[in-house]
Design brief:
The chain is an alpha+beta fold and 99 residues long. It has a domain of 69 residues: Ribosomal protein L7/L12, C-terminal domain/Adaptor protein ClpS (Ribosomal Protein L30, Chain: A, 2-Layer Sandwich), CATH 3.30.1390.10. Helices cover 41% and strands 21% of the residues. It is built from three helices and three strands; from the N terminus they run βααβαβ.
């Protein structure tokens, strides 16, 4: 039998995943210490980075805590929500597409 070789050209284009900003919002009840702890434990910020971000949130009303793929951003938002609820704080985390 004769060998038949087929040449198939296919172009695969890999698309970079969309990235999302995770933002913490200021409120009048969540303590600064709790925000710093959240930034250190969930967002893996150093003490000085966490304090700088906390002050930005306090003074400007919100701050970006990190930029992640959708699934990771969503997980971090849910973790903030869970920990805030467990500690009776109304701390709000949201995510926005990074443009």
């Amino acid at each position: 039998m004769a060998k038949i070789e087929e040449s198939i050209e296919s172009e695969i284009k890999l698309k970079e995943p969309e990235l999302y900003r995770v933002i913490l919002h200021n409120d009048d009840y969540t303590t600064m210490e709790f925000v710093i702890e959240i930034l250190k434990s969930i967002f893996h910020k150093s003490s000085s980075e966490a304090e700088d971000i906390m002050w930005h949130i306090h003074e400007k009303g919100e701050a970006i805590c990190g930029i992640y793929t959708y699934e990771i951003a969503q997980t971090k938002v849910e973790e903030v929500k869970k920990r805030a609820k467990e500690n009776s704080f109304p701390l709000l985390a949201t995510m926005q597409i990074d443009e």
